[in-house]
Write a structure and sequence with these properties.
single chain, 190 residues, alpha+beta, three-stranded mixed beta sheet, two-stranded antiparallel sheet, 6 helices, elongated, Rev_trsase/Diguanyl_cyclase, RT_dom, Reverse transcriptase domain-containing protein
């Protein structure tokens, strides 16, 4: 899949990509960076992939349709087919009154959705974190029996209890939150 996406990337224009800039030496938040001789690097992103999932990203619906056509063409040359029944389009418009665009793969229309779950995180078109916070609350509620059996058990060493808490509770509660943009109401909910 990655080789197919890499092949499709060569036929695209860099101005159509989402550009990400970063400074690899770790001094991006350091004031000494102003005197630094290193320059920020940039990466042009068209396709995000995880296992057998592919996400196409763009600022423009026309570019996204062209990217979808090119990816479909490259996949067909490799003997692969895009499953349009499983393919969904989630659009996060800048203006709330923007009408959703329709995308096509060959003759099939891709369904527009308001939200879907990707890598255990709820993505939606309003960028609201409430569903993710609710998921964390439900995970926290599931730790009630764990707290009785392990965390409040005086027969278990305190280091073991802390290790269990760090390994289970903290990792699940904080999973995927590094990409959030929380508002005050979300912080209060947590």
């Amino acid at each position: 899949m990655a080789a197919v996406a890499l092949h499709a990337r060569h036929s695209l224009k860099l101005k159509d990509a989402i550009t990400t800039r970063y400074q690899p030496d770790g001094s991006i938040f350091n004031l000494r960076r102003l005197k630094s001789v290193t320059k920020p690097s940039s990466e042009h992103i068209f396709v995000l992939q995880y296992a057998d999932d592919t996400a196409l990203v763009s600022h423009s619906s026309a570019v996204l349709q062209r990217l979808l056509d090119q990816l479909s063409d490259v996949y067909s040359h490799a003997g692969l087919v895009i499953n349009t029944k499983k393919t969904e389009s989630l659009q996060q418009p800048c203006a709330p009154d923007t009408n959703p665009c329709s995308f096509h793969v060959e003759d099939a229309t891709i369904a527009n959705v308001n939200q879907f779950i990707y890598l255990c995180s709820v993505l939606n078109n309003t960028l609201d974190l409430t569903d993710d916070i609710q998921r964390i609350r439900l995970a926290s509620d599931a730790f009630g029996p764990l707290s009785i059996q392990v965390l409040l058990n005086k027969n278990i060493n305190i280091r073991t209890r802390v290790a269990v808490y760090d390994a289970v509770c903290v990792s699940i509660r904080l999973y995927d939150c590094e990409s959030w943009v929380p508002y005050r109401r979300h912080i209060r909910m947590l």
